[in-house]
Design brief:
Layout lengths: L9 E7 L36 E2 L2 E2 H11 L3 E8 L4 H6 L6 E5 L4 H11 L9 E4 L9 H12 L5 E6 L4 E5 L2 E6 L5 E10 H13 L7 H6 L6 E4 L11 H21 E13 L3 E4 L2 E4 L3 E2 L7 H14 L4 H4 L12 H14 L2 E11 L9 H12 L6 E6 L5 H4 L3 E12 L1
Parallel strand pairs: 1-4, 1-6, 4-5, 7-11, 16-17
Antiparallel strand pairs: 2-3, 6-10, 7-10, 8-9, 12-15, 12-18, 13-14, 16-18
Helix pairs in contact: 3-5, 8-10, 10-11
């Protein structure tokens, strides 16, 4: 009886027993984020490509990261050569890693990895086979592959459609242009049921058929795996020159990830002076010979800060959330607005790194009140007061501020993903 799709667990096998015969680190150019291949010690030309330095680690370590990060993958079997001393130095530190000894070919090494799972995995569990020399695999592609299996596929292969014009060569010249419609580049991981893949590889070996990937072995058994479109940047490091491309891809991915972790926002608020005997700034009531014309308490500091926070979240502005057409906010304490926006920041998975606020006014002077203002804002935002900076400036008697017609505030904030 076949186990329900959701009950079938996930495992991974990474064949890493190759010698990298086409890979020569002694002839490669310097790679960003990696040691210069030309500076390698004697014998570096024999360094297997999976151990070439890349982005502060090795090619193999970069290839393993997306598999180790995926919580649904139970264990990852790394299949190494019998005399591989380098792996023993790196195999510590993750309870998800297992080790198996590989063979003379990739096909034999994958089989060894599958057999190493027999005592832990069920025959119908899914196994993702990933090349040790594909360091640019994206976690989103692993997720998509697993989703295809859970949706009922009999197997799944990460792939990218061929987008370039394809030529067939004969005797060093173009013989014909090949129709590229329906052509895909097979990538890894490729995922199939453990027992079925093991039998398919064994049968191919008995037939003396050297398969180039797991999908080819399964094709011989009549299994039609689904193609899961993955990133075309999931390149395979084959030659030393490929390291430079991989380093650029990884750096670009890191930059994209960081852009999602940090958010910057800016806000500005202005109010005219009107009848009254005080203004409210940063939640502090400051005596003045005039008040401000506003629907709420007219606290330009908090209004600018709210706008900056909302802008960083991509959630509009203060007028959208607390419109001056709503009677509930007539004369309202603006600190209520700030506490509401602070909750939105937290719910979105961000925290304030720092805020910088500038008050623009000829009067009143705020020097004596800055500490209290910062303490108020920090309390409402749930952060330390030292993360809030408040300063003031005049406009040298220029413009509406300089003429004493009103006051304004500007705020800038930095948020970080929690």
């Amino acid at each position: 009886m076949t186990a329900p799709l959701k009950a079938r667990r996930f495992w991974a096998v990474v064949p890493a027993a190759g010698r990298g015969e086409r890979f020569d680190t002694a002839t490669g150019a310097a790679v960003p984020g990696a040691a210069a291949p030309g500076a390698a010690a004697p014998g570096a030309s024999r360094l297997p490509k999976q151990y070439a330095p890349l982005a502060g680690a090795t090619v193999l370590e970069c290839s393993l990261r997306p598999l180790l990060r995926e919580p649904r993958i139970e264990r990852v079997v790394v299949v190494v050569a019998p005399d591989d001393a380098r792996w023993r130095e790196r195999a510590q530190g993750s309870g998800k890693l297992l080790t198996a000894i590989g063979g003379a070919s990739r096909q034999e090494s994958v089989l060894a990895g599958l057999k190493a799972l027999r005592d832990q995995a069920a025959p119908e569990d899914w196994v993702l086979v990933h090349d040790a020399a594909r360091p640019c695999l994206e976690s989103a592609d692993v997720t998509a592959l697993i989703a295809a299996l859970e949706a009922g596929a009999s197997g799944a292969v990460l792939a990218a459609p061929v987008v370039d014009t394809v030529k067939r060569e004969r005797d060093g010249t173009i013989a014909e242009t090949v129709d590229r419609s329906g052509l895909w580049r097979a990538l890894t991981p490729q995922a199939f049921a453990l027992n079925a893949l093991e039998r398919a590889l064994e049968e191919a070996a008995r037939a003396n058929v050297a398969v180039t990937d797991e999908a080819q072995a399964m094709e011989r058994k009549g299994v039609r795996a689904v193609l899961v479109q993955g990133s075309p940047f999931n390149i395979k490091v084959t030659r030393a020159a490929d390291l430079a491309a991989a380093a650029r891809i990884l750096q670009s991915a890191e930059n994209r990830a960081m852009s999602g972790k940090m958010r910057i926002g800016q806000g500005i608020d202005v109010h005219m002076f009107g009848p009254g005997d005080h203004v409210v700034l940063g939640g502090v009531r400051i005596a003045h010979d005039r008040g401000v014309i506003a629907h709420s308490d007219g606290d330009v500091v908090i209004h600018a800060l709210c706008d900056a926070l909302l802008g960083a979240l991509g959630k509009g502005d203060i007028g959208r959330h607390f419109p001056d057409t709503d009677a509930r906010y007539r004369g309202a304490d603006s600190r209520l607005f700030l506490r509401t926006v602070a909750a939105m920041v937290s719910e979105a998975g961000f925290a304030l790194v720092n805020a910088d606020v500038t008050v623009l006014a000829e009067a009143p002077r705020i020097a004596a009140h800055r500490g209290t203002m910062a303490a108020n804002l920090a309390a409402d935002l749930g952060v330390a007061p030292e993360l809030i900076n408040i300063k003031a400036t005049t406009t040298e008697r220029m413009g509406f501020v300089g003429r004493g017609e009103g006051l304004a505030a500007q705020a800038a904030v930095l948020l970080e993903s929690t």
